[in-house]
Write a structure and sequence with these properties.
Elements: H1 13-32, E1 36-37, E2 43-45, H2 46-53, E3 63-65, E4 71-74, H3 79-89, E5 97-106, E6 118-127, H4 132-149, E7 153-159, H5 160-167, H6 172-183, H7 187-196, H8 201-211, H9 215-222, H10 228-240, E8 246-247, E9 258-267, E10 275-282, E11 295-301, H11 302-309, E12 319-324, H12 329-341, E13 345-348, H13 355-362, E14 368-372, H14 374-379, E15 382-386, E16 392-395, H15 397-410
Parallel strand pairs: 1-5, 7-8, 12-13, 12-14
Antiparallel strand pairs: 2-4, 3-4, 5-6, 6-11, 7-9, 9-10, 10-11, 14-15, 15-16
Helix pairs in contact: 1-4, 4-10, 5-8, 5-9, 6-7, 7-8
Amino acid sequence: MLQKPRGTRDFLPDEMEARRTIEWRMREVARCWGYREVCTPEFENLELFTMRSGEGIVEEMYIFEDKGGRKLALRPEITAAVIRMFINEAKVAPKPLRWCYFADCFRYERPQKGRYRQFWQFGVELIGADTARADAEVIMLAADMLNATGIAYDLKVGHLSFMKNLLKDLEYSAQRRMMAHLDKKDFDGLKNTLESMNKADLCNSLIALVNCRDLAEAFEISGPVPEKERINQTIEILDAAGIEYSLNFGIARGLDYYTGMVFEGFAQNLGAENQILGGGAYRLAHLFGGDDVASCGFALGFDRVMVSLGEKIHRKDTVVAVVCTNECRNHALEVARIFRRAGIRSEMDLMGRGLGAQIAHASKSADFAVVIGQRETESGNVTLKNLHTGEQKTLDPESAIAEVVSHGARR
């Protein structure tokens, strides 16, 4: 028997309904902030991703050649593709552009809970605004989106200027090594590497910065920072908006990608793989042949959000089973159509069961039975039976619909 590929999943109806519920909540938040959805191809030219992330990413990607010998890759992330689309299709559009997307990505890595080879991201990109207000807007949007899911999370906000200021005298390759140590909180490795470079004096400052949670103290540790006013403005906006966050100047990933403000979100009830969101201010357009345009955005790991929510999300429609005698089937079809037009999930028997067997089957999955017999067909009414309580009423279709809708609102 054929099995699904490793690192992928099948989603049955209950799980898909839960996923669509959370996806819809995220979409509504993005819409209310003015972010409009875009879509890019599932595969792109391989160069698009290696230009941004380097050749090292090749080991994590699904790569293939088309019949013309062109090297293509299933997208491992979407930001690069969105910026490529901006350059191709919208570089003269009025700025800023507020774009969002929900799509699947692919990475060839060891599968584990919350980490899959096919996974979904909800992302946001704000293109063409280079201000503290733009940085703050993206963080506030991320917080609103996480709040809408109902997840318990911690939001951490930092800025790379402090760390870049401490590392400014090191070569790029050395900076990357420092960042790797700091990202893993490998302070022994950090100390040994700095000593080998005769830069041991940096160790205490870097460790102090990683552990610092106070803005004024961070300025003291790093020395003069050109972006000081913008950083202060961003924090003031977040505080005025009542955003719950903590400062973290040890966010070390993406030194060669992000340019300033960075932030991360972590689920409170997950283990080691608990990061659910990451983002910040960046500049990519010039790498792909466009102008140097400021951007800010984030990607939210949808699958980890769902793992964190677990059994908390149950989107269950109120289900109506329209049951009938065989001679009243045409009228029952019309009644079912009336319920469906009202937005009520309505099902009919397809197996030729008798009336009693239809009701017995409906009781396994439906909330109400709408019974249509000769009497109902002649009167234009329906018999509405609550399959949970056994109570039944004879009502006109509009009143029956109102009863079902009221039941759904009380669930």
